[in-house]
Each structure stands twice: as C-alpha cells, then as structure tokens.
Amino acid sequence: xxxxxxxxxxxGAVYLVSAGRFFLLDRWTRGMGTLFSxxxxxxxxxxxxxxxxxxxxxxxxxxxGTLPMPGAEEVRPHPAYKGRIIVRYWFLVIPAFLLVTGAxxxxxxxxxxxxxxxxxxxxSSAPMQVMGRVRCTTPSDGLVLAGVRPARVSLAPG
Length: 158
What we know:
alpha+beta, 158 residues, elongated, 4 helices
C-alpha cells in the first residue's frame, strides 16, 4: 500500500510541476478556491515528492525487514508505533509538512471563475496570477477584474 501511495505522490508532483498552475476548489465555500502558481505550486509539488519519498522509504524498510511490521492481530497500529516511524524519518516528514504548509500560505484564494479568465484586449494565453486585493483595469474596454493580472506578459494590446 505504501508503494502505491509513493507512486501516486510522485505522479501528482510531476503533474503539478508540468501544469503551471493548479486550482483546488474550496470544500466549504462554494465558488471559491485556492490557486497554486509559481513558488506555491513548486512548494506543493516538493511536499508531494517528500511525502512520496517517506512512503517509499517506509515500504522499502518493511520489505527488507529492517522495520518491524505491526502485529497481524492489530487492525490499527498503536499510535506509538506510528510515532516511532515519523521520528525515524523526520528528515522527510518535516520538509513535507513545511512545504505543503508554505504552499497553502503563499497560494491565493480566488473565486472559481477567475481561473480561466482572459483579459479582453490582450493577446495572451499565459496563466493568470491573483494578487491580494489589487484591482486591475484593462485599457481597452474598462473591464475591472478584482485581483487579477497576467503573469509575465507584455501589456501591449493585442
């Protein structure tokens, strides 16, 4: 099971790095979500890589027999057993936790419709980045999009 988790974490991290941006829909607030782009996206991918490395390392140690498995009679291992594994692999667990936490802190909360917006009057297919509470206005038609700006795009009308 841990090898499958490791493979899924690695595949997810590769997808995140290749995607350029990732929108995670909010569970409680309909129409809102978290947009990962730039550094926050790379931090999220790094956290997935670290979590995959942790799962893979534990699976390899179980297969080699150097890490004792929980007893067969136990449906759930004792919390102390889980704690010992986390302490043993702290060098993978702590970076994973810090990277994922940092990614969520750096990511932007945006309405769901903002993710696929193209600014009228500009010819750009570049991903959009959202900035705090800044308001941008396009010069061509005066359309105001709260908190949206094109990422690394020349602002010459297209």
